[in-house]
Amino acid sequence: xxxxxxxxxxxxxxxxxxxxxxxxxxxxxxxxxxxxxxxxxxxxxxxxxxxxxxxxxxxxxxxxxxxxxxxxxxxxxxxxxxxxxxxxxxxxxxxxxxxxxxxxxxxxxxxxxxxxxxxxxxxxxxxxxxxxxxxxxxxxxxxxxxxxxxxxxxxxxxxxxxxxxxxxxxxxxxxxxxxxxxxxxxxxxxxxxxxxxxxxxxxxxxxxxxxxxxxxxxxxxxxxxxxxxxxxxxxxxxxxxxxxxxxxxxxxxxxxxxxxxxxxxxxxxxxxxxxxxxxxxxxxxxxxxxxxxxxxxxxxxxxxxxxxxxxxxxxxxxxxxxxxxxxxxxxxxxxxxxxxxxxxxxxxxxxxxxxxxxxxxxxxxxxxxxxxxxxxxxxxxxxxxxxxxxxxxxxxxxxxxxxxxxxxxxxxxxxxxxxxxxxxxxxxxxxxxxxxxxxxxxxxxxxxxxxxxxxxxxxxxxxxxxxxxxxxxxxxxxxxxxxxxxxxxxxxxxxxxxxxxxxxxxxxxxxxxxxxxxxxxxxxxxxxxxxxxxxxxxxxxxxxxxxxxxxxxxxxxxxxxxxxxxxxxxxxxxxxxxxxxxxxxxxxxxxxxxxxxxxxxxxxxxxxxxxxxxxxxxxxxxxxxxxxxxxxxxxxxxxxxxxxxxxxxxxxxxxxxxxxxxxxxxxxxxxxxxxxxxxxxxxxxxxxxxxxxxxxxxxxxxxxxxxxxxxxxxxxxxxxxxxxxxxxxxxxxxxxxxxxxxxxxxxxxxxxxxxxxxxxxxxxxxxxxxxxxxxxxxxxxxxxxxxxxxxxxxxxxxxxxxxxxxxxxxxxxxxxxxxxxxxxxxxxxxxxxxxxxxxx
Length: 840
Hints:
Low-confidence stretches: 308-317, 395-412, 726-742
Strand content: under 5%
Largest sheet: none
Oligomer: single chain
């Protein structure tokens, strides 16, 4: 054992002190293997009991014991368990004043022991009682840190899946620990009665919050009238007044948040009536922090203004320098914001009743939304989402008692009117708050001047921030309506127009932010044609916007895509299917204006295809215009068909075009990804089927098929010849491809599968059976050759079968003449390849 101990010390010394990284790595591997050995139990215990062992050895051996108890407990004989338990407790008391890391590892080892050893084996009592009875007899300076750390870690570790125990025992341990919550709360109350410094008091409150979370409030008991005077509750509320650098404050935040959720059902947010006395203490105590949060917000705004050169309001600057809040920092503001949010989310059912008493939590949520740092401001977004759902669709009148046996059942019309009136009253009550929310968060989507220097991670974070704001704007529009929300969002455009008129440069980021926000609220646009008029004005102004910024061009195109359906609705409203339907002059004017705007928006999107950063958005805009307004694009058909042929040389088509092709030099293809090329193809197919008479569609489809089929045939011709049938191979076995051949076709010919997908795109989006049947007949020979040459490449086979399946589906009964030959060849290909795609 002595030699093993010396080897352990030597390995630790090499790990921590040797200069050679290779030696460190070897020492680390040896120590990992040593920890898995059986002798690690006794050696670690002996090293920890040795008064001459160093700090590094103490920590490593305590960690080893923790790991062994967690994962290798079954290595111990049952008779050794009591000895291990007593030894761990003795070591914990020995290192009570030692390094916190070693003490924590020993606490975790004891907690792991409670997971493995059932409660009835702890001398007939609960593990907590057993530990407390042994620790409380020690001097206070030894007992308090050990007991407090155990009580803090126990509820945290109850759902730790690192313990090698069976699921039944894991569940039983959770039940045992939950049943001991009341005793743990009593012990924490006892600890609180002793003289404590700020850090120890914070530890007590942290443990208190953990046990509340574990028991879901059951530890407090059903009598809520006594809870406001409970010492732990009083201490938690008092801790909210601690300074920002005091650890008590952050521990109090955690404890109060748990107390808030103990007063409601976490699934339904229904308030427990017995907890109303506690609620009446919690909410005012939290709301008292509003001035403190306002000062922190003002300080953050002042610092942000100093960085950006923006002047800050003098009143805000003065508030940020109040001496009582001088030590508050961003973490303090985050803690207060979390308190506000937890109160708002927990009591959302009560807040949604729209009585005057709920104004304070709502105003607190607006304070959070106005905080300069987005990571803190976004804490309130879930509250606004839940409130919006309550006001727009989640609220319903409480059920009425059943009527008399012979009377009508269910709510009457008058009850429905009352419910509708109540819903309207609540929305009007909260409308000012949601309006203010829109003005507070709309600027958060604007690109800063230094956005071009961002790394990938920062750009991704800002993108996520924009979408979070967009979701909250949509929630706001659900309450205050599209028109009112849009009026608030386009306000900065008036300021931008005024600045440009005064000779200032055009701020593209401000315009892009407005369009991004307007896109976000599209789901709530009214179904009434031409309503609101300002939306038509905004769309009509898009072609006139300067488009030197690619991000602005992309946002313009995305905006067109989002509202193409609205334009289509305006046009359709003036041409009802029922000829007896009367169309108003305003609807006719709206339809005429919408139809006249389509060519301008289409041209704008086509031009944006030339910008690499905006090409994807432009392709989406073209597709949506064709999908929603295709019947009214007759004047655009010729340019669209020309664009269709041009984009064939983009995407993977660029690799199939011969170098020096004069057509490419005269009309180079736009910088499109392959997915965007297929979006353009879908758009042209849809527009063709909607604009042309039925008799002309087959010929138009044949014209669209020609470049796609030619490219696919050229790519197929470049494949190696189909392998010859091997007579030695039975007919029931799949054909074996040539060595190094078909299995790697998708790697050596990466452009083949996308070209087949282009063909599938035509089959899927040409909406006429006869036209699809003709295209399928013209393409079958190429597909058949593809199946032969790619017999061993599953990826290409799957893409080809998908293409064939879409063709048969689109042709329907018009494909009847092709079915005999198709079925015969498919059976042969399946026999040769055994690929399941042929069966579908």
